[in-house]
Each structure stands twice: as C-alpha cells, then as structure tokens.
Amino acid sequence: KMAAAAVAAGGAGSAAALWSEVNRCGQNGDFARALKSVNKILQISKDDVTALQCKVVCLIQNGNFKEALGIINTHTKVLTSDIIAFEKAYCEYRLNRIENALKTIQSASQQTDKLKELYGQVLYRLERYDDCLAAYRDLIRNSQDEYEEERKTNLSAVVAAQSTWEKVMPEDLGLREATYELCYNSACALIGQGKLNEAMKKLQKAEELCRQSLSEDSDVTEEDIEAELAIIHGQMAYIMQLQGRTEDALQLYNQIIKLKPTDVGLLAVIANNIITINKDQNVFDSKKKVKLTNAEGVEHKLSKKQLQAIEFNKALLAMYTNQADQCRKLSASLQSQSPEHLLPVLIQAAQLCREKQHAKAVGLLQDFADQHPANAAEIKLTMAQLKIAQGSVTKACMILRSIEELQHKPGMVSALVTMYSHEEDIDSAIEVFTQAIQWYQQFQASQTRGANPKSPVHLSLIREAANFKLKHGRKKEAISDLEELWKQNPKDVHTLAQLISAYSLVDPEKAKVLSKHLPSSDTMSLKVDVDALENSHGATYVRKKAGKLTGDNQQKEQGQGDVKKKKKKKKGKLPKNYDPKVTPDPERWLPMRERSYYRGRKKGKKKDQVGKGTQGSTTAGSSELDASRTASSPPTSPRPGSAAAVSATSNVIPPRHQKPAGAPATKKKQQQKKKKGAKGGW
Fold first, then answer.
1. Is residue 159 a contact partner of residue 171, using CB atoms and an 8 Å limit?
2. Which CATH code for domain 322-406?
3. How far is residue 335's CA from residue 331's CA, in Å, rounded to a whole number?
4. pTM reported for the whole predicted model
5. Where along the chain do its domains lie?
6. Is Acetylation a UniProt keyword of this protein (predicted)?
C-alpha cells in the first residue's frame, strides 16, 4: 500500500525522495523509520490522503492503536469511511471497543475480504456464535489463499465455543485435524459434550503435534515449547478435575503457574480452578491465587460465563474467609448484573445462615421465588433444606409440596413420604401417594385419548403405595391398590400373594377364592438342588436327632460319622509337685478362707514386735522370727507339695489334687477397695 502511495506521489524532488524512503522502509518492515518520513511529507502537505493513510498504517504496525484512531477521527473529511474503514475498525477492535468496531464494519460502503475477516473476529468476541459460524463458512467457501488453515482453525474455535457455552451439539465440519490448534479446538468441543476420555486423547495428540511442529524450528527453545503447551496442559488438568482426579489436576495447574505464561486469561482460569479445588480449605493459598484473576486485561480475554464464574468464586471465598461485608457486596453486584441468576441469592442466603439468621435467609429466598417463578423450584428446594436443618420437617414438606412441577416425580414422592413417616403423619404420606398416582392417571389419559394403560413409573408408585399401606396397617386401602396392579398383570404371582395375604386379615373367604388362582406346586418348576444348597458355603443345616436310627439311615449316619475327623482332647497339665500316691484335697477348689481347716491369720502380733526397742536390741519374740526354728513346727495351712507337711498334719490333705465332693461353702465376703483419687462416701 505504501509502495503504491510512493508511486502515486509526485511533485518536488524532496517529496519524491521521502516517498522513496517510505517505500523502502515499508518493504523492510522498518515502520518506525517510515513514520518519520511520512511526518516530513505531512509537513509539506498536511492533508495528503495517501500520507495520512501511510501514517495510520505505520502507527498500527508499531502498536499505537489509540494514536492511529485519533488521526482517523481528526481527519474525517479527508479520511472517509470508504477509504479507511478497515483501519478504523481494526484499531477499535484492538482497543477492545468491540461494539464500535461492529458499527464501523457494518457502515462500510464495500465489504472487502479484510473487513469480512475482521467481522468474524468481532462476532466471536461478542459471543454471537451462530453469525460468526456463518461468516467463516462464507469466507472459506469464497477464499483461496495461504490463510485457509487459519480460517478453518477459527471455524473450529467457534464450534467449540458453541458446544462449551451454549451446549449446542456440534456438527461434523469434516476438518482434517492436521495441526495442534485444530486438535485442541476439537478437544474443547468434546469437553462441552461431556466426552472427557475422548477429549483427553485429542489433547494428547495436540501436544504431540505441537512438539513436532515447534521442534522443527532451531530457534525455538524447550522453554518456548512448554510455554506454547501451557494452554493444552491447562485443559488436560481441567479434564482431570472433572473426573475427580483433583490431586493430579492441582499438580499440573501449579506446574503451569511456575512457567509464568504471558497469557493473563490462562492464568486467571487456572487460578480460579485451583480455588474451586481448595473450597473452604487452604484459604491462604486461595487468597494468593485470586490476585491472578484481577490482572489487567483479563476481562477482554475470557468469555462472559468465565468471568461470571470467577466473580461467584470470589464471593464464596469472601464467605469462607468470614468477610461478610465483602461477600454481600460481591453477591449484590452479581445480582444486579444478572437479576434472574440463582447463585447470587443463594450465596447471600448462605452468608445469612453462617450468621445464624435462618429466618432472614428463608425470607430472602421466598422473595426471590415470588419475583422469579421460573426459578422458584430450585429456590424452594433450598428453603426446604433450611427448614429441615432447623428441625421444622412439616414446614419443609409444605414447601416441597408447593413445587407443582415436581410433585409427581418419584424422587419427590419418596422424600415426602419418608419425611412424613419420620413425623408419624401417615395420612399425609398416603395423600402424597394418592396425588402422584392421580397425576399419572390424568397424564396417561390425555396421552392415550381415554385408554387406560399404565406406565412403569405409574405402576411402581401404586406398588410402593400398597406396600406402605400394608406396613402401616391400612389393609383395606392397600387391597384396592393391589387389585389394580393384579388387574394390569393377572400373571403376577407376587402381587396375587400380597393380595391374598391382605384379604386373609380382612375377608378370609375372599382370600380362599383368590388362592385358587395361585399356580399349583406341580406346575411350578423350582430347579433347586437341595444337596448343593445344603453343602454350599455359609449354609447352616441343623440336624435334629429323632431317637435311634435304624437300617440304612443308621448306616448312613455312621458312614458320615466315620468321615468326620475326631478332635483329640489335650491332656490337662498337672502341678510340678503332683504326687499320685497322695489323695487330693477335696477342698482345693475353695478359697483358703473358706476351707474347714483355715485357722485365720494372727493379726499384728509379729508386726507390732518388729522394730521395737533400741538399735541392736532383741525382743522376747525374736525367736519367732527365726525361720530355722519355725520350719519344723506345723504350718497354719498345709503346703501342697510337701510330704513332710502331709505326715505332720494328721488329716490335712494337700490342695489341687481332686474336685471337691460336697465341701461346705461359705459366702464370699466382698471387700471394696477404694480407687486412687476417688472420693469417700456413697
């Protein structure tokens, strides 16, 4: 463009020389030097359109978008929209004035290929993915140049965004995944569909392609390759987190942060994901990580839903760190931005609950449910949970029953019946069953135009209602439900058996009539191997002894007895001083105090004499302390293993030699010992 301007510029020799300099610098990519020459030309002719265009281009190439846009806006008479539309729209796009860029493109008199390319980028930033997809399809169809691969990459990015943020099932575009960018975008689309294992394989392929592509350039270092792979590794860690592999995900996230990538958007997403892993734990680390989400320019790198998720997590982190005012401020700001969103009001209610203001939290949720009926179901479920936490189960049931769209759901019916049973309100529980069954009857009738087939869910509810009524003694009410089930399936023996059991308590004659419908035992083929069942692991077969066994049975029992291994009884150990010639003491099993020959202990006699008198003196009882003199005297109680003792004590027999035979027993006195540290008294 500058070469054309140089050719078109004629005039004085100095101007021609300047234009030649501009042309040469432009071809060499030296736009800073070219800008100096253009400024000299504008000093000669300040309204030269070509010179102004060249100046805008030089400023854009040098990254001075704001100055370039200022020149365009100050020379609107000379630089009309049909001349400078692309440059103006591009400056606005790079300055993140996306709406202005869109207006500039749409107001252009002629839609050039450059404007169409920029139009696709603008639509992507505005998250108008359907229009963006159509724009790129048109570009790919009508363009044939060296940028075709980049357009296909952008097209795949749009499809991935639709799958992730709008939950749209992506169509097969038939793109050949020959580059790591295409593989990465395909993996993102699979994540949006919940196909995590397939997405991981795509990311691994993208990593391999990226390494191959970058390793071909000798100027690229290993650090450069790792920096390029950071976004792929970040997505891998996200898949691990979704799969519950939080430790692996956390390790990979921290590795990426250590690389210090220049992409502030990537750092913000990783920091946010680490905070979600930490939750209410490791709050100090979360406080450090949240600073990465506040970096300059993050709002221009992420989608609206990503930014919203980060703000929600900031509010939750403030709640976990007991910053109540900050939490309320953030949640209120979020609610003003998205009045119909559930999370802001739920965060506010959670903060009130942490402050023990449960009634205020319930009131806040009730106001939101009244203002936004479309989201009332989720809010009322939360209200019911708060009521249960307060112990108001009946009020929780009332709130749950007010959710009309969930009344007939099996899960809701089960929850209500369980809660009413806990409160012993059987009538209300049966009423819940009845309302749900009636809803299914009306729904089925409207779908089948008056016919009366029962859906599996409907029949399941009837059966559960019948079982519940039988359990709580409502036999007559249960009978009608069982008859309805049997009517739907007359071959159902289980239902028939239940019906007969219920009638047997209410109308025995009717039970007898119905019992005729039961199949006979001959028709029932019970293929049960009794022997195998008895011999199976864990089977407990108790054989009753019925007198003497005769004939074959006796032989069979004897045969079985032969097979059994007899356990050998171990011989009891005898005392070391056991003498088989001596008759055992019949009272050996009794305590010493209870034996007939026990004379009692001489309390305090020797104890009082020990240590009396002056040092070295002897007492009259000192001879009693001499063990050599007392050895020959008869002991107060017999010594079990001493033969001399046996001969010395006429009829005293050593203990532990045989069981007692009618020895007199006296009541054992229980001596209470005080525990250490225990107080006296009762």
1. yes
2. 1.25.40
3. 6
4. 0.66
5. 10-110, 322-406, 417-517
6. yes
